[in-house]
Each structure stands twice: as structure tokens, then as C-alpha cells.
Amino acid sequence: MNKPKPRELIVIRKEQITPNMLRVTLGGENITTIPANQESGYVKLIFPNGNAKPLLRTYTIRHQRSDEIDIDFMLHEDSGVACTWAKKAQENDSILVGGPGPKKMIEVSSNWKLLVGDMTALPAISVNLAELPNDSKGYAVIEVISKADIQDLKHPSGMTLKWVINPYPGKNVSALLDEVKSLDWLEGQASIWAACEFSSMKTLRDFFKKEKTIPKEYLYISSYWKLGNNEEQHKIEKRIDAGQAYSSQQ
Fold it and tell me: Cross-referenced Pfam families, in alphabetical order (predicted)?
């Protein structure tokens, strides 16, 4: 299947969801080129880079309506090209958007569920929680920069939300793992969905694979960013890590 061609979308409005989360709503006449039911799928925001190759930044579709999509931006202290654009964006500004890429949803056939992530994964976690079957049970462990960044998320009553306050995301790599280790591990097969900073991801991956021996069909884990790296550098680190992980299994 051919990849969808990038299309130009228009800024419809902006909303400060929490102190460190900014929502930009995109629409325009080309919005119909994005298929329906893409919440939690990702798009590529494409930024000019002089005479060099354009810069691509990956973001989750938080909400989708027939004529709009919402993209939530975690506002880092050292804002890169995407966050800087989002902060400055005005109504009717245009941006080139590629994708969407595939949705990554937690496996629902398990006995219970565990979602783990930081603020970069909060949009995807929010969609996963909202789409879980009503009888789901388990936990969502979510790292935010401050108490004011805690959001009211739709979720089944059997899912307990645990919020981890970490003012310096990416520096305390064990913040999420420590909270996960403190959970009462439920009976039966768990399915895991986890996404966060690169180093935090590696600590969680070791725990889930080695200590909890979660089968691969019940484990989705990914790094969405790496402290001190831009997306191009992070992709290189991910490829190296994937190669090392593969070699260790041989």
C-alpha cells in the first residue's frame, strides 16, 4: 500500500490544556484525506529546513472529528522545532502533515491491563483508556511534570490511574519503574502498553521482559524521545538499541 501523500492543513485554534500541554486543532479543505478512526495513530509534522531535507516530527492524533484533528504538544524547557511552532502558531497558519501511521493499541484479550507513559505518551494513553472494554481492570501509570498537568481521563471503573510527578522528565529514569514496581500485580495474564523517554523505556523493558516475563504478544513498548536528542538522533539510538536487543536474543 502506498503511503498517503502529505497534505497542507490549517490551524483552526489553540488551547492550553494544562501548564505543560498545548493543543493545536488542525483542519481545512484537505482534512478529508485523513481516514476516519485514526485517534492514537500518528502523523508527521513537516517543517522546512532551508536547503536541507525537511524536518519531520511525530505526533499522536488525540481527537478526530469529521473536519478537525487535535494534536497535543508537551512543552519541553528546551523546545524543539515542533513545540516552538506550536507556541507561535496562529489561526489560519498552515503546516504540511504526513501520515497517518498505524494505531498502537493495547492487547485487550488479557486478564488485566497496564498502561505506562510520560506526557509525550499521554495522548495515546488517553485514547487507549477511552476505548478499553467497560469491564477492563488494571492500571495506568502516567508521569507528568506537575500536579497541574493531571488530566481528567475517561476510563473504565476497573482501571486505576496513578500519576507520577516528575518536574524534570528524562532525568529521573526510574520514576515510572518505581511506581510500576509498587503496584499490586493482579492475577492472570497482563497486557502492557508503555511509551516514554528512551532511558526510562529501557528500564521498563528489562522489568517487563526479565522479571515479569511478559510474552511479546502482550507487550508493546517504545521510546518516543531521548533526553538531549532531536528526533533524527533519537531514531539512530533506537536502531542501535533494536540491533543490540536482537543480538542478545540470539
Answer: FAD_binding_9, SIP
